[in-house]
Amino acid sequence: PAMRAFAAVDLGASGGRVMRGLVGAGDLRVQEVHRFPNRPVPVRGTLYWDILGLYREVLAGLRATGPVASIGIDSWAVDYGLLDADGELLGNPVHYRDARTDKVSREVVERIGAEVLYERNGLQFLPFNTIFQLAADTRLAPAATVLLIPDLLSYWLTGELGAEYTNASTTGLLDVRTRRWSASLRQAVGLPASLLPPLRAPGEPAGEWEGVPVTAVGSHDTASAVVAVPADGDAFAYISCGTWSLVGVELPEPVLTAGSRAANFTNEGGVDGTIRFLRNVMGLWPVQECVREWDVPLDGLLAEAARLPRRTVLDVDDPVFLPPGNMPERIARWCRAAGEPVPRTPAETVRSILDGLAVAHRKAIEQAQALSGRAVDVVHMVGGGSRNELLCRLTADECGLPVVAGPAEATTIGNVLVQARAAGDLHGSLADLRALVRRSQPLRRYEPR
Ligand code: LFR
């Protein structure tokens, strides 16, 4: 039987893509149709996403994709656009790395109480969680609706309003037990109920664009990536590795213990009612920022870094590395303050970040197991970072566990799988979808040394 095509729109912090996914009996292929950079714009002290530019590229990509059975959209989490009562966008969405939430986030936590907050929304503290951004937002008065980025693009395509559940689970405004909007959290930051659109689950219809159905997918990119983890059984940890490393396990129920809160583990909503119990590790962001500053290709640096011994292990999760700009300098400053040797070359700098990441990966995987009681015997690295051989090898060695790397296209594959199942082209549970990923995608195994 012929394979049917699905369009997956995937926006990441550094770039976006429109991909064509082909799904047929026992086979799955994804092809890149259109790729474009995502360059945030600083304007008078605020860092914005260029959302109209991104939408233009999404449209160009969809037109170039050819006939598809449906369209699915995912992106990074937490950020949003505000619409007025006529559905007009009120200003540009602000980037989660903007400093506007630095103070407000702590004030909101103090006001609600860290325990109460965690008990209700189950989220790790990140200064940019939507609840804090909305508390800091000065444009709320004329706003009628808040839409997360994929929901905003979906609205522009279809004219239909909705809040996809997996991404809504990153806002801090969802009740982690009932999986509905939490009235008490909403009220705690003074938001009217009408601001939050009705929830929709991955797989539900989300309108039409030029006669083509748009389907809600795991619109949080990490939720889609976890769908495509090629695991067999449930004794696995995953690292969805790109700008961030999202490190954790998949659980049927949230873990809301004091230990889990202290370790800053999050309980995000996954596809098919799963919980993504994970920690945000800084990821390849510091490398991306250094490379942006040095303006040299990464491949050569990685080859050189692979020949170096471990010298400095950067604490990549230090919040000083969160904002953009001056990354090499901030790394040097961190080393001096920590009494660690300052990297002397770009390759040494890259190596110190990757060694730091490998250690952070191990700690998060150990904690995930200890806090959840779920033991793992393999680590799946998916996403663009799974192409980074040095990072995979360092992670396997550090964890003392085999690392299975790939697919690098996990996010778009997860996006396509959920659409294809909703369309009736695929059937079964996450385990069945993962079996298809295992059969169809090239994977690479790193044994620990
Ligand atoms: C990864 C990701 C993370 C989220 C961060 C900010 O792309 O979606 O899961 O914590 O971006 O939105």
TrEMBL record:
The keyword Glycoprotein does not apply. Residues 237-423 form the Carbohydrate kinase FGGY C-terminal domain. Residues 68-211 form the Carbohydrate kinase FGGY N-terminal domain. GO terms for biological process: D-xylose metabolic process; rhamnose catabolic process. It comes from the Bacteria. GO terms for molecular function: ATP binding; rhamnulokinase activity. InterPro entries: ATPase_NBD, FGGY_C, FGGY_Carb_Kinase, FGGY_N, Rhamnulokinase. The keyword Kinase applies. Gene3D superfamilies: 3.30.420.40. Keywords: ATP-binding, Carbohydrate metabolism, Kinase, Nucleotide-binding, Rhamnose metabolism, Transferase, Xylose metabolism. Belongs to the FGGY kinase family. PANTHER family: SUGAR KINASE, XYLULOSE KINASE. This is Rhamnulokinase.
